[in-house]
From TrEMBL:
The keyword Oxidoreductase does not apply. Gene3D superfamilies: Homeodomain-like, Regulatory protein AraC. GO terms for molecular function: DNA-binding transcription factor activity; sequence-specific DNA binding. The keyword Cytoplasm does not apply. Residues 197-295 form the HTH araC/xylS-type domain. CDD domains: cupin_MmsR-like_N (cd06986). Coiled coil: none annotated. It comes from the Bacteria. Signal peptide: none annotated. This is HTH araC/xylS-type domain-containing protein. Keywords: DNA-binding, Transcription, Transcription regulation. Pfam families: AraC_binding, HTH_18.
């Protein structure tokens, strides 16, 4: 049975999805918050039948990496060991561990992956290694995918403090579902949405154009001043700042998964002034669009 795409949305980048949490958000919110700082996501993504997928990191990376394969297979090399990762297998690469991995040429893997850090992250990895080594079979995969979908879908809605706490508390459950291989649990969907959530929905549907404060306030039937106060009180960001963060999240995906020129990416996101786009991206992500693309090309 084929798995549903994460978030239930149409794939926009040839079966690939990825989010890099901005460094400013990590430094100013994740690291400083007493709840989030113990375990938090820095990058998250999904590759469907990742033909020609290859990555080599000679010095490792500053985060722990969890890779869950739901179809096909691939190979992971860590000094002294090679691991074949097949359907229903999870592998955990500790931070700063040199490694390389690639999809099988004939039967490329479909993988869900998360990079994570935090005060307790080394203890979590140590517990996993004591229980499984660094590779483990998974019997409750459907639940793991549901949790991934929930985390990814929430991150697509931006980086308010409430959202980050929710996402990274879900991360504990996600990791424990591999550590202890929990059976599927029934979870109720939350149907009711606030004005803020409706506004975020509006933002995500209109990333390709410019939106004024007045427009989105009208969409949720509030005055601009009332809406702005309500939104910032709920998310910690002004509406337009939040909207721009979502635009930069999408820009990262264009830079990561397409060969579009940076000027064209700017236009795709409704920003006519390329120089403004570049400044906004650099301010949000802590790195220029050009440097971000180069960095990703060197680590894929």
């Amino acid at each position: 049975m084929l798995l549903q795409n994460p978030t239930g949305k149409q794939e926009a980048f040839g079966g690939k999805k990825a989010i890099a949490v901005p460094q400013s958000v990590i430094e100013n919110q994740c690291v400083k918050d007493p709840i989030i700082s113990n375990l938090y996501i820095t990058n998250i993504g999904y590759y469907d039948q990742a033909h020609n997928h290859y990555c080599q990191r000679g010095q490792g990376t500053g985060q722990h990496i969890l890779i869950y394969c739901t179809r096909g297979k691939g190979e992971v090399t860590i000094p002294g060991n090679k691991y074949v990762i097949e359907e229903g297998t999870v592998l955990l690469i500790p931070e700063n561990t040199p490694h390389a991995y690639c999809a099988d040429p004939q039967n490329p893997w479909t993988i869900f992956w998360i990079h994570f850090k935090g005060n307790n992250s080394a203890d979590v990895v140590s517990r996993f290694k004591k229980r499984h080594g660094i590779k483990a079979p998974i019997s409750s995969g459907a639940r793991c995918v549901e949790l991934f979908d929930e985390i990814y879908g929430q991150l697509e809605r931006g980086y308010s403090i409430d959202n980050l706490i929710n996402v990274n508390m879900c991360l504990w459950h996600f990791v424990s579902s591999f550590l202890y291989n929990e059976p599927k649990l029934a979870v109720e969907a939350h149907e009711n949405k606030t004005k803020t959530e409706f506004a975020i929905d509006y933002f995500t549907r209109n990333l390709n154009r410019t939106i004024s404060l007045g427009e989105v306030a009208r969409a949720v039937h509030l005055s601009p001043s009332h809406f702005s106060t309500l939104f910032k009180g709920k998310t910690g960001f002004s509406p337009i700042e939040y909207f721009n963060q979502l635009k930069m999240q999408k820009a990262c995906q264009y830079l990561h998964f397409t060969e579009l020129r940076i000027k064209d990416i700017s236009r795709e996101l409704g920003i006519a002034d390329y120089y403004y786009f570049s400044r906004l991206f650099t301010k949000t992500m802590g790195i220029s669009p050009f440097a971000y693309r180069k960095q990703k090309l060197n680590t894929q």
